[in-house]
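Section 3.1: Structural characterization of target chains.
Under the original work plan, the team committed to producing a structural model for every single-chain target entering the pipeline before any wet-lab resources were allocated. The record below documents one such target. The sequence was received from the expression subgroup and is listed exactly as submitted; it comprises 505 residues.
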Amino acid sequence: MFEGQPKGLFALALSNTGERFGYYTMIAVFALFLRANFGLSAGAAGLIYSLFLAFVYLSPIVGGILADKYGYGKMVTLGIVVMLFGYLLLSIPLGGNTFALIFMLAALLLIGVGTGLYKGNVQVMAGNLYDDPKLAGKRDAGFSVFYMAVNIGALFAPTAAVRVKEWAENSLGFSSNDAYHFAFAVACLSMVISIIIYYTFRYTFRHVEGSVQSSAETASHTAELSLKETKSRIFALCFVFAVVIFFWMSYNQNGLTLTYFADEFTQKTSYGLQSMWFDVVNLVMIIFIVYATFSLFQSKTKRARYIASGVIIFAMAVLIYKYTQANQVIDISAPIFQQFGAFFVVALTPVSLAIFGALAKKDKEPSAPRKIAYGMLVASLAYVVMLIASFGLNTPDQQKLAGDDGTFVSANWLIVNYLIITFAELLLSPMGISFVSKVSPPKYKGLMMGGWFVSTALGNILVSVGGFLWGSYPLWFVWMVFIVLCVISALFMFVMMKRLEKVAE
């Protein structure tokens, strides 16, 4: 999995881990903060939430254009600094008045601009590491590793957000609304860590920081592309961008309607084996077991196998001990569910790579466009789970009136939803980024990576649809919207598959 990857990949991935930890710490509680602090309706909070997400993923197209001209490294550094100032502003508790709302919007603007300068350009730099023909075959696996590292940051973010908020309330005596700002302050520290990692290991990727690669090989590839080939590649990329809009619309419900569902329809307590899922230490132990098991079978030396065996025994012992202590009822906070997406990405990435590696040896590995199409179908199954879970439940408006007398379902429904949609994410997101990196005409790499984020932005705008449906409509209808859109998108991909696979050759 890690063997043969360029050192620069790990440096860039770790820097991105720090940045994503800060971002997802904020996102974990943002929708609930909007409703609690400013008294907004579900729809209004959803609109602000989705517009912010849209801006965060729309701005990389501008960042890509600037990086193509002035250099990727310069834009990445500037982006981290701008994000830091944005999170600093968001960390200041000013109450719930109009001035506080305007101040918050200014902070969101800085975070969005900074993300636009940073996010896409880090991924372009990671992709440029594989322009060396010796590394070209490692590109898909490399982006899977990169994506896994990003989700390590996202894994710890919800726990950090919840625990820091609780600490500010219980130990420092702040009100619930003001305590949210302490969760936002965590992101400031993560930005500092991110830039330290970036500059400490900069020597491993300095050669891809520039706006134009200087290698003779890159120049020859640029010359080889005719105008027709360039247009064909851009068309294929734009088609993929259009399709994945609906994946991001569905996937990013994790911070909106799925969080609302966790808050309003899911049981508030857990105990026994189920409660272990809500302790991030247990999730980390499971990750240790997964990676150590792969190391046990893949290691070439006895020493490495002994170490892997020791890690497995240690992690199992921790889990057994934690289970013996899991005899008390624990409270479940709605934002904590967002850790499961990141956990499943990190835990399942080596499984995914092993499966596709085995298929590649048999010359049966699906192409990146085909993986994206499969990902859309799998995403629809995740919402089939929610549809089944919602039969017989009140509408959100009815549930609000019912209060404690409403009907609540097991947390397992949401956990299964996150598991399935993570399979979709692993098929779609890292493969999509790899596809863009591979197919983009060399002189438009920054712009085309920005285009990938534009599709994410448009999907995030449509996230608000879930917020506006959340109220008087039956829950099964809300989930059916996402099922239908994902299935239709997959069908469009299959119709265009031959053309998409041709440009990826």
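The radius of gyration is 22 Å.
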